[in-house]
Amino acid sequence: MQKMKELILENGTYLGSGILKVDSFINHQVDPSFMMECGEEFTRLFSFVNATRILTAEISGIAPAITTGLAMGVPVVFARKSKPITMPDQVYLTIAPSHTKGINVELIVSPEYLCKGERVLIIDDFLASGSTIMGLVRLIQAAGAKLVGIGALIEKDFEGGRALLSPLGVPIESLACITHMDAEGIILKE
Amino acid sequence: MQKMKELILENGTYLGSGILKVDSFINHQVDPSFMMECGEEFTRLFSFVNATRILTAEISGIAPAITTGLAMGVPVVFARKSKPITMPDQVYLTIAPSHTKGINVELIVSPEYLCKGERVLIIDDFLASGSTIMGLVRLIQAAGAKLVGIGALIEKDFEGGRALLSPLGVPIESLACITHMDAEGIILKE
C-alpha cells in the first residue's frame, strides 16, 4: 500500500534494537481516515476468505481491526492483556513474548465471543517475530474456531514472523514490508 | 441514543459493586457499524465545538474515539497507561484512580501529539466517577491545549462524574445514562 510506505519513510523513526517508532500514525496518534483506507485494503486483500470475525490484540491492533471490521461488516474481538473483572472465570489464555517490551504478555479471550465454527481473520499493527499473532492463533484453536487469514499494517521481514506463521496455510498480508532498518534508514520491499 | 439504551438493557449485566458488564458490545467485542453510529452521534452532538483533535484513554476508549474521529475528520490520540519505549523521555503524565481495577493508573501522552492551541474533545467508553476523564483533562491542560467537550458511550449518573467535570464549563454528553443498577435490573434516564 503506497500511502503506508510513504508514511513509514516520512514519519517512521528507527530507534535501534529493531524498534521502529510509528507513534505519529499507529501507536499513539491515529488518522482515522487513513486507518479506514487500511481497513478497506485488508477487506480487498481478504475478500475471498469469508471471515465472520476479526481478532486482534489490544492496544494498537484495535484501530485497524475496527476499520477492517467496519469495511467487512463483521464483529471485532480484542484479546485483553490482563483479565478484566467483567470476564468469566473460565477463559482462553495464552502467553506470548513481547519483543518490544522485553516481557511475556498474556493474551486472554472470553469463550463468549470466540466460538467454534467462526472463521477468524487476525488483524494487528505489526508482524515482526510473529509471537503475538501466534498467541492469537492458539486462542482461535483453543476455541475450536478456524483461522482464515492474517493481516498486519507493517511487516518486519527480517524478524522471521512470516516463516513462523506460513505453515498455518492461510494468506498472510501486510500493507508495507520492511526488509532492513538501521541508523542509515529504512528499506521497504517494492 | 436509543440503540445504546437497548443494548444495555438487553446485553448489559450488573455484576455488583457498581460494575456493569458490557463486554459484548464495548469492552471486549465490538460491532464496528454500531460503533460508527456512536461516532456519528458524537459528531452531531459536538458539531459546534470545532474540535481539532480527539483524546481518549487506551483500551476501550479507542474504538469510539476512532469512529468519532472518522466521522469528524480529525486525528485521534490515545493516552497510554504504560510508557512505550518509542516515547520520548519528556512526556505528560498523570495518575488517575481506576474504580473498576481498584488501582491507580498512569495516563501518558507525548508532547509530540498534544500541542498548545489544539481544541480537544475527550471521548471515552464510560463516564463514572470521572477520574479517568479528569486525568485526560489534566494532560490537555499540561499541554496548553483547550478542552472543548467530553463524550462517553455510557454514563453512570450515580457515581458523580458529571458533578466533578461540570465546573470545566464544556458540554458533557453521554449516549445512555444509567440512574440506578442493582440485582433487580438497570434503570436508564429517559
Structure explained in plain terms:
2 copies of one chain form a homodimer. Chain A is α/β, with parallel strands linked by helices and 190 residues long. Chain A has helices spanning 2-11, 23-27, 32-45, 62-72, 131-142, 161-165; strands at residues 13-14, 20-21, 29-30, 53-57, 76-79, 92-98, 103-109, 119-127, 146-156, 172-182, 185-188. In chain A, strands 5-4-8-9-10-11 form a 6-stranded mixed sheet, sandwiched between helices. In chain A, strands 1-2 form a two-stranded antiparallel sheet. The first copy, chain A, has a two-stranded antiparallel sheet with strand order 6-7. In chain A, helix 3 packs across helix 4 (62-72). Chain A is globular and about 50 Å long. The mean pLDDT of chain A is 96.
